[in-house]
Task: structure prediction
Amino acid sequence: MSDPAFDRRLLDLAARVAMRSVGNVEPNPLVGAVVVRWMGSTPEVIGIGHHRRFGEAHAERAALSDCMRRGHDPRGATVYATLEPCNHTGKQPPCALGLIEAGVAEVVAARRDPNPLAAGGFEALEKAGIRCRVSGDSRAAIALSDPFVKRVKTGLPWVIAKWAQTIDGRVATRNGESKWISGDRSRKRVHRLRARVDAVLTGMGTVLADDPMLTARDVRRVRRAAMRVVADTDLDMPETAKLVTTARDLRTIVACSAELATGEITRAKRQRLATAGAVVVGVPTIGERLDLAALLRLLASEHGVSSVLVESGPGLLGSMLDADLVDELVVYVAPMMLGDEMARAAAAGRIAPTLSMAQRYELLRAKRIENDLEVVYRRRA
Result:
């Protein structure tokens, strides 16, 4: 049965379940599935599943297993999945085959699978006589696989930029004071976010000003031990910085210009950083700055990075925005005003004399965190 309201409700449910595994399944996509038996014009949910962990059962097979545990036969049922069922054998057998063997009648997916290795699920299902269709009624289900789709299509990781600001959009005073704009609970949520990404990216300005660790602290479970990445064009990284002195225990990459990464003038500095445990990588430059797209592509291809959290000052964030590399914004708005035109904004360095030059995002969600407001935006589709 095709009903936009039911499609949205059931795919929203599949997306909510799948979100439980953020940080556990990458580089696989987050996927949720719901099995429904129609009682007249009313759907009865008889099974729910999601891809829980990389290497384990995919969402559709997990949902079919849930049906059996509940004492239901999925034969003739409709399956709602956030992504087209896969049609290849990897660590798990094809989901399309599992649905065919279960005898379901219809599969509804929020989007087709762009991965050429796994695509073709709908074709296999339709060949077996199972109805298939795509429903775009659930924004949550579509957004769920945005990071995976981007990585498959572009080779770039999903980039999240995070900052805390005052009501008037300032991230620090004119003297650089920023501790603390947001509240304690907001900062704890940032640590949870760090525990679910593959890399945390910062710039030299932040290293020199704050000497950060960029680790996930006071988190019940660190799902992904994020590597720390510093964009350091001129290889100015202080050898006494915490990122360097802890590099033996926590993966740390210092990205500098390709010339300095191989030149004789920096050989001794590179050797000392390497002895401390830091990895120096060379990246092409555009003018006097690193080619940030090249850096992201290197992190994805050479280090298996699927997601990057940017925690930086206005300069690096401005460059990331200028290059149109930021997919998601997580902003904590604190209940304070500075009213100082010299106080620092979240991003700087861009020239945008008209509103048409603005980078535009869509509001994904907003949540009150004690007295702060957590606002999440996504790049416009």
User: Anything to note?
Assistant: The radius of gyration is 23 Å.
